């Protein structure tokens, strides 16, 4: 019966195909063959499946390219363009799906006509129908796969569009040029009383996640553990910090040498103790609240932000306690008066608490993605509170200093840098308050956050710099055990230890200064100085001004900051070389001045090149400038360039150096300074002659004091009558030379019978002095004494002559 049923079904199918296709009855075998070849009643395909797959691959490549561009997008226009491209790509995916859906429906209809596959059968044409069914099934499966791929791409593109919208909102919130209502406007405070439904829904979702986490930690059987963990966190945060501070203080007082290292180590240990205890307490608190709840990515990112923020606030509080040190004024690192330290004592803790609240609000708003008005409200309140707190600290400090001055007590000593920092902080507070009043909330937020970051970096570098210097001094001190062990182990003397101390301290301080510069330039809370300048330009003239001037504000600001900081570091390193390192190395004055001048010239050149590089100057685009300079050098600048190169040769080869006594073109004097273009020579009459550097290279120069073993020579030539006893005169001259205190015993003075002429006999007497600079004065003294002795011995001179002072190498005896 089953075989009969299958045969009947096959015959009915063939008849239906004949009716649909309009084929005569005698063409039944051909109709069956057509079914096997092209499908039952199949219409020509609208879209090739291979073409659809190729289009999907192209769309995926385009989607990946959009994602790459989104990673570097920094302006709202770029995000809008990427969002528009995403929308176009999503429309192409929908078009492809609309083309594939009829194909799938038609294929399914053809399968419905064929019906399910029989269990077995031998009816005529059954094999052809089976092949056709398999072909249609495979085509349907392929179409379903392509549709699934298109559906996934559409979902990804939808998510990407939502991300672009979120990025655009965040960019708008962080746009410094965005102006809203000021804090004195009622519109600014509307979100306090009325929130949008979107904000209520998002905050409600966030609150639900937090409630679920707390319920997981407070469920029956876990409450005791949660309470114990929270109690342990509080105990470590308060009691653990105190124990660590006392332990570090005991180590500093009983294990460190009685030097300034104790104070700097105490300040550093107090800050580290607060930071370490807070970090452990935060981790225990995380275990207490989230040990039985799996955080989603948003909550996990929020927790990471809160941990970093907590450690930052702990560092602020620790640095404040370490620097003020109100309980032990003798341990205080900076030179602050006790009333001033007591007056400033509560402000670091208040600032840390306010910063924690502001950072937490920022993180929650960023995670929840609240509206612009709510975000600006939170930032405005936080900026106002921080500005008022810092301003109150400044006013309190000024008031205490005024009271100290009125009572006759001397306040703490002020340096120029400290005064500039104080004035800069005051100006920042005033600027933030003005920005809040006129509606630039994000500018105020930037100023207050960067002000706090500047204070963190400044205080940290101050403590670390003092610690580095004190460690170097204690480590290489010849009076302490470490220095004595180094001397014994390495065979050093006190001079070598002093050099090692200077080099170690200088290198450590320089590295810390570089770290501080990098930290200040990168910014601590997300906004860089370039963003501020860019926004100020936009506020003043908009994009039209930028395009008209063709400026890059971020590069200009970075170049100005790098040039200013580089100039300060260059001068600081120069002072360190001039007053610490080179004197510790025991170099002579000439080498000292040459190294300082060479360092200054090379440093300025490198600083200018670095500044131009940061500005984005392309050297290949300056070919016309180089050509113009070449022409100028060939004509007007030739002498300047020649003198500049000659100055570099003088500083490197050192044929003459500062302090040398030279003679050039009949002029003799001491070199006082070698500049880039010319050299200053001080003459015997205290006047100064400016000699171009090229003359010292191209002309014959007599260096009187060149070499470490040169001595001055005082030679006198006397012409005596022929009847004079030369032996008597010889002994007289030698006695006079030996009696003079400036004449050296080695080499010994000598008398030479130079010449015998009809006018008389010539005797030359020579004596050595310690320096050519005293030879002239010594010669004058000798002439006074010799003439007096000759007259006493009744010996006359027939033709007295005196030789010029000569510079002769010392003779080995």
From TrEMBL:
Annotated InterPro entries: DUF3772 (IPR022249), LSM_dom_sf (IPR010920), MS_channel_1st (IPR049142), MS_channel_C (IPR049278), MscS-like_channel (IPR052702), MscS_beta-dom_sf (IPR023408), MscS_channel_2nd (IPR006685), MscS_channel_C_sf (IPR011066)
Localisation per UniProt entry: Cell membrane
Matches recorded under Pfam families: DUF3772 (PF12607), MS_channel_1st (PF21088), MS_channel_2nd (PF00924), MS_channel_3rd (PF21082)
Chief location bin: membrane
Membrane spanning residue stretches: 226-244, 265-286, 336-356, 376-395, 416-440, 446-465, 505-526, 556-573, 594-615, 621-641
Coiled-coil regions listed: 49-99
Annotated SUPFAM superfamilies: Mechanosensitive channel protein MscS (YggB), C-terminal domain, Mechanosensitive channel protein MscS (YggB), transmembrane region, Sm-like ribonucleoproteins
Domain Mechanosensitive ion channel MscS: 640-705
MF terms (GO), sorted A to Z: mechanosensitive monoatomic ion channel activity
DUF3772 domain span: 148-207
Domain Mechanosensitive ion channel MscS C-terminal: 718-796
UniProt KW keywords: Cell membrane, Coiled coil, Membrane, Signal, Transmembrane, Transmembrane helix
Residue ranges annotated for the Mechanosensitive ion channel transmembrane helices 2/3 domain, each copy included: 598-638
Family under the similarity heading: Belongs to the MscS (TC 1.A.23) family.
The protein's name in its UniProt record: Mechanosensitive ion channel protein
């Amino acid at each position: 019966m089953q075989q009969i049923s299958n045969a009947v079904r096959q015959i009915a199918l063939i008849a239906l195909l004949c009716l649909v296709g309009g084929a005569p009855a005698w063409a039944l075998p051909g109709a069956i063959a057509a079914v096997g070849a092209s499908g039952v009643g199949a219409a020509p395909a609208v879209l090739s499946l291979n073409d659809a797959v190729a289009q999907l691959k192209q769309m995926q490549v385009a989607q990946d390219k959009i994602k790459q561009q989104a990673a570097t997008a920094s302006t709202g226009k770029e995000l809008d363009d990427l969002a528009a491209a995403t929308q176009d790509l999503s429309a192409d995916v929908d078009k492809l799906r609309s083309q594939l859906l009829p194909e799938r429906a038609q294929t399914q209809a053809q399968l419905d006509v064929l019906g399910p596959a029989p269990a077995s059968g031998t009816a005529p044409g059954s094999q052809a129908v089976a092949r056709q069914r398999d072909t249609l099934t495979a085509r349907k499966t392929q179409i379903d796969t392509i549709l699934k791929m298109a559906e996934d791409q559409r979902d990804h593109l939808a998510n990407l569009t939502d991300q672009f919208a979120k990025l655009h909102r965040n960019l708008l919130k962080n746009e410094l040029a965005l102006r809203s209502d000021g804090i004195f406007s009622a519109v600014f405070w509307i979100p306090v009383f009325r929130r949008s439904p979107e904000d209520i829904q998002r905050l409600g979702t966030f609150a639900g996640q937090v409630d679920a986490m707390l319920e997981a930690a407070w469920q029956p059987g876990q409450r005791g553990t949660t309470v114990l963990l929270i109690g342990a966190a509080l105990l470590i945060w308060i009691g653990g910090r105190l124990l660590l501070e006392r332990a570090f203080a005991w180590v500093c007082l009983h294990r460190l040498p009685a030097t300034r290292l104790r104070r700097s180590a105490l300040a550093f240990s107090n800050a580290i103790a607060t930071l370490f205890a807070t970090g452990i307490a935060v981790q225990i608190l995380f275990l207490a609240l989230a040990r039985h709840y799996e955080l989603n990515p948003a909550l996990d990112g929020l927790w990471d932000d809160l941990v970093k923020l907590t450690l930052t606030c702990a560092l602020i509080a620790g640095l404040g306690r370490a620097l003020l040190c109100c309980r032990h004024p003798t341990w205080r690192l900076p030179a602050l008066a006790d009333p001033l330290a007591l007056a400033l004592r509560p402000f670091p803790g208040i600032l840390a608490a306010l910063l924690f609240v502001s950072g937490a609000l920022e993180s929650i708003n960023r995670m929840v993605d609240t509206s612009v008005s709510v975000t600006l409200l939170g930032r405005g309140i936080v900026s106002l509170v921080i500005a008022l707190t810092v301003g109150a600290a400044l006013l309190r400090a000024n008031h205490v200093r005024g009271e100290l001055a009125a009572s006759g007590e001397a306040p703490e000593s002020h340096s120029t840098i400290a005064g500039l920092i104080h004035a800069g902080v005051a100006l920042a507070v005033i600027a933030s308050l003005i920005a809040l009043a006129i509606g630039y909330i994000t500018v105020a937020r930037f100023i207050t956050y960067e002000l706090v970051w500047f204070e963190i970096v400044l205080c940290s570098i101050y403590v670390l710099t003092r610690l580095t210097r004190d460690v170097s001094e204690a480590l290489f001190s010849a009076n302490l055990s470490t220095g004595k062990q180094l001397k014994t182990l390495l065979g050093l003397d006190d001079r070598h230890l002093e050099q090692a101390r200077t080099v170690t301290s200088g290198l450590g301080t320089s590295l810390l200064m570089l770290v501080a510069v990098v930290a200040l330039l990168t910014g601590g809370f997300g906004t860089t100085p370039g963003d501020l300048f860019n926004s100020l330009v936009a506020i003043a003239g908009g994009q039209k001004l930028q395009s008209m001037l063709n400026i890059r504000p971020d590069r200009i600001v970075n170049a100005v900051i790098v040039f200013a900081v580089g100039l300060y570091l260059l001068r600081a390193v120069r002072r360190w070389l001039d007053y610490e390192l080179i004197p510790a190395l025991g170099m002579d004055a000439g080498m000292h001045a040459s190294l300082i001048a060479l360092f200054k010239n090379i440093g300025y050149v490198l600083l200018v090149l670095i500044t131009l590089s940061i500005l984005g100057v392309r050297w290949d685009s300056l070919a016309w400038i180089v050509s113009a300079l070449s022409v100028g050098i060939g004509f007007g600048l030739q002498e300047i360039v020649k003198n500049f190169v000659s100055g570099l040769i003088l500083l490197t080869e050192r044929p003459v150096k500062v302090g040398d006594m030279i003679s050039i073109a009949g002029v003799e004097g001491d070199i006082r300074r070698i500049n880039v273009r010319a050299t200053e020579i001080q003459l015997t009459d205290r006047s100064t002659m400016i000699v171009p550097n090229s003359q010292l290279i191209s002309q014959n120069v007599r260096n009187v004091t060149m070499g470490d073993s040169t001595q001055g020579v005082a030679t006198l030539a006397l012409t005596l009558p022929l009847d004079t006893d030369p032996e008597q005169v010889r002994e007289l001259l030698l006695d006079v030379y030996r009696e003079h205190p400036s004449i050296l015993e080695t080499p010994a003075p000598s008398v030479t019978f130079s010449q015998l002429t009809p006018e008389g006999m010539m005797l030359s007497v020579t004596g050595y002095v310690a320096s050519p600079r005293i030879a002239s004065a010594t010669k004058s003294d000798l002439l006074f004494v010799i003439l007096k002795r000759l007259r006493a011995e009744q010996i006359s001179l027939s033709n007295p002559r005196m030789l010029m002072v000569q510079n002769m190498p010392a003779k080995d005896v």
